Amino acid sequence: MLRRSLIVLSVLLLALGTTPAVAAPLAGYTGIVRLSNCSGSLIRLPTSKDTDPALVLTNGHCEESGMPAPGEVIVDRPVRRPMTLLGQDGSVLGTLHSTKIAYATMTDTDVTLYQLDRTYRQIARTLGGHPLTLAAAPADVHTPISVVSGFFKRTWTCSIDRVVYSLHEAGWVWKIAIRYTPECDVIHGTSGSPIIDRTSGEVVGVNNTGNDDGEACSLNNPCEVDENGVVTVLRGRSYGEQTYLLTACAAPGNEIDLNLPGCMLPKPPGFVLPLSAR
């Protein structure tokens, strides 16, 4: 979907033990993660401490039990999921394991945030791995970016072409999505790849979809919808979701607290914000 499910060619390549041609990223593969069905990244929030349980970021539609339905929000769901951490040169440093999904949704955005069973300090000492930092500010148009796939060990470089008011695909709607310039023609299997600001080195988003066939608003064919309801379809163009909203919901210990003032992430159905936070 979305950039998740692998096309038949990719499956055959993996079965043969090969992958598509690799282009070395500007900053290497430090912090990049490979999942069973997607890419991801080991990330820290601006408030994270070395002694906090580490976090891995990927797409909501990469969540292993299936894609969250429109309006569905997952918080603090216990799950032990293995994932492979890469080193700067793309070599395998070792396996990480989650303890829970701290937050996941495909409503307004498309993110899954896993909390791990080891701290950043433990990962650095035992595996030599280091996280990327999540940017606390929105992404800007014309920012030079890299989309780094741990699944394929391949990187695309381009710029942010536009921040889209809303992006529609099948029954899902995503707000303030990032449209890439055409050079980032990412492929299926790159879902969850971090979008890295090549100037700051910070993660500004997560890669999630692209229009395959020129259809409007259908699966694998997202369409742009502006403030006035005008629909735009751009065949072959790819998109990601901004991630700065996660930083406003960060509580001590790398927890996600939807009650925090300024936290604008979608809440689970029936969620009631305490009076003190309204």
From TrEMBL:
Signal sequence interval, chain numbering: 1-23
Alphabetized Gene3D superfamilies for the sequence: Trypsin-like serine proteases
One matching Pfam family: Trypsin_2
InterPro entries: Peptidase_S1_PA, Peptidase_S1_PA_chymotrypsin
UniProt keyword Protease, yes or no: yes
GO biological process terms, semicolon-separated: proteolysis
Keywords linked to the UniProt accession: Hydrolase, Protease, Signal
Single GO term (MF): peptidase activity
Protein name: Serine protease
